[in-house]
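User: Let's play a game. I give you a shape written as tokens, and you guess the letters that built it. Ready? Here's round one.
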């Protein structure tokens, strides 16, 4: 990956400890690493919550793609709703 050269920018840490990186980064999540005292590395990142990580496993993602493809070719319908409700009621009695 080619490195992008840019001129150093002087930023001032505000009274509340913040530094503005610019509007293009507003709302983005970043990884902040202190490599040594006074040396910081800031990288943009996409963070996946623990309870959603399973969605990103290859097998799960493939199953979801397959399900979405099926759902697109089989539109939802109320045509058989009464028969389905009857079958569910009957199954509940067994």
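Assistant: Ready! My guess for every position:
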């Amino acid at each position: 990956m080619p490195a992008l050269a840019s001129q150093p920018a002087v930023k001032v840490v505000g009274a509340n400890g913040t530094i503005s990186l610019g509007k293009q980064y507003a709302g983005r999540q970043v990884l902040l690493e202190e490599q040594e005292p006074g040396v910081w590395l800031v990288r943009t990142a996409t963070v996946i919550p623990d309870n959603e990580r399973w969605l990103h496993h290859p097998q799960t993602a493939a199953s979801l793609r397959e399900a979405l493809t099926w759902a697109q070719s089989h539109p939802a319908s109320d045509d058989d709703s009464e028969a389905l409700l009857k079958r569910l009621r009957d199954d509940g009695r067994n």
